[in-house]
Fold this protein.
Amino acid sequence: MSSRTSSKHLNQSQVSILVEQLVQTVEGLEKPVCLPRHQLNLYVDHLEQMVALFDGNDEYDYSAQLQVFQEAMQDVGIHWGLLGVESYDEDADRYRTTSEMLSALVQRIWKLTRSDEYRRVKHDQRHQAREQGNGLRRYVDGMFAGYARLLVVRVNLYYRTEAQARLRVEHVFHDVGKLIRARRYNDIFDHEVGYVCSVEQGNYHGSGPDERQGRGFHAHVAFFFDGSKVRGDVYKAQQIGELWEQVTVGRGCYDSCNHDKERKYGDRLGIGMIHRDALALRTNLYSVMDYLVKDDQHLRLRPQGRRTLRRGKPIR
């Protein structure tokens, strides 16, 4: 039985990555043995938050790893009791200690990660990323078929550190939706001919989850403008970033990929003004599109039925 701990509160993104980390660690074991004590402590300290992540589970679609954790949790009988998270061991006719609970959970996770269903879901996620990349390349080709030059503006949409503590993935979708809808009445987007938006989840770095730093939930956007009508991509990126700060009521911040782009990207430059016949720049633009659907920053959970990748048609 686990009494309520006083460990530092993690945000939703950090907890979901911690759950994924546990499943991936267990998946890599040759046999379902107990994790070393130093690894076990990491999960003991945050077990309640890991379990609480799945409260109201009908609201989210989960990644393959989180689905396994949720199923294993149910199989082991982990639930909320009067004193916190608990699990009853019917064979021993008593409640499990926290270490015993995690040990049972680890063994069940190990078995589930050997199933064909789990392997299939993981494969489907990687396949989807490849298909999305191919679809974005066709999307770019379609715009070049109608416009000789495209002005490509790339902005990374983040949240300030102090705003991340209570940030939930549905908040990001809400804010991104406000930004996309703002295109209809804001002259920043005059002569826009298309856009791509991807909601993602960055990993964290540091010695432990309490000290980890990272971007967490965020979004990448690319807006395409008629290059015969619009110039000044650096200023355009700044305008879009400032609009993001407005729609998030100051909780958001941004990074302009177009600022100092030649120095940052060199021969890999694929944003700014691109002519349809500039094959090298166009190839680099394809790489930019691939980056927007990369699998290593996939969402571990998302509001049910919501798409992580959006692309649009001209609004004018």
